[in-house]
Fold Aminotransferase class I/classII large domain-containing protein.
Amino acid sequence: MSRATEERKLKHLFDGGAWNVYEPNILNLGVGAPGTDLLESCCDIFQQATEHCLQHEKKENQSLIFQYGPTNGCFEVRREIATYLSAMYDSPVNCEDLIITAGATNGLHLLLSTLIDFQGYIFVDEFTYMIALDSMKHFTSLTIVPVKLNDDGVDLRDLGEKVEKHRFSSPNKEFWGMYYTIPTYHNPTGILFSPEVCRGIVQLARKHDFLVVCDDVYNILYYGERPEARLLAYDARTDVDYAGHVVSNCSFSKILGPGLRLGWLEVPPRIKPLLEGSGFANSGGCFNNYTAGIVGSLFKLNLAQQQIARFHETYKERMLATTEALAAALPEGCKMLSPSGGYFIWIRLPQPLDAREFLKYSLEQQKIAFIAGPRFAADGDSGKQFFRLSIGFHGKAKLADGARRLCQSLKDYMMSVTTA
Ligand SMILES: Cc1ncc(COP(=O)(O)O)c(C=O)c1O
């Protein structure tokens, strides 16, 4: 029976292959999802929130949660999210700017299909979220243009030159091009874009009128100081040349649970009616009206705030334990970017080592998996000297032990290559 037609009764996305994160014989350090220990408390709090929400629906809302929802999501839910975010960012978020989505993947698809000229250009960091690349590649008439990435964010000169070269006037869409990035705790590199780089991106976007899409799913997961501001805040509405070029695409996947399929876009007034008017959004109304209502209750009951705080604290401990173990044991010649938030640690091997070869060795010798750099490059081939580890899934003891074993395996591998 072919894989396509076989009913395999899978339980989760990573089920059914060598990458199964629940496979006891392999330590998979590649997966970007919260682990079982974090998710298990969801049942209790969601039970309470569901009870609260459905009581309200039955008594006071004509069960409208089961109706097609308003395209941008119910006001009460957006208000709960906006209040929470305003506190987390320490800067106001307007609930009128929010559009509820079925997660960041859904948000990106809506933006790509609605706002960008199909003959247009998508600028991406030379290493970027691999599945966003897969989504973009479905739009076969779009051209993906990788841009150099430095330790403090995208290389502004490279972005400026490439944008200048490709710019055109779109006859039928709001934007001729898009720059897609993850400015806060970047996937896969873990970096945080500096204020200078954020400012520079906004200046370029205004000058050349392209859309900046910030994939902000790790935004509130800071482990040291809260970042000064997110990229969206640099596109200030009080500026004389403000037009609205930046969108923040967020999700509850990493902070409450990916199975919810719930997120939100924060968009400028220029863009909101275009998204709300799209057939893709309008035909079904709110992308996930029922779950949004339950999560609204989760916030009203103060359960979401507590749960997110717990996730946040746990990730922080995991990141610290992993980076400490790596810093102590990474072989000479390897470089690690120590992130101040998010899920990912990006490691560079000395030339001419290839992380894809090391992955085979590591799986064979230690049964430890990770993702090699080329998966994050638009051409699928650049970046062979890098690999990405993720701290989201496993507990800190397992991560620290895994990091030590990985370093030992790397030492052995480097030795075997130099003596071969
Ligand atoms: C940068 C980035 N964007 C989006 C996603 C997926 O988000 P969602 O589950 O909200 O679709 C991930 C998950 O790994 C991610 O790392």
User: Anything to note?
Assistant: The pocket of pyridoxal-5'-phosphate is lined by residues 32, 103-105, 129, 182, 187, 215, 217, 251, 253, 258, 263 (CB under 6 Å). The longest helix spans residues 303-329. The chain has a mean pLDDT of 95.
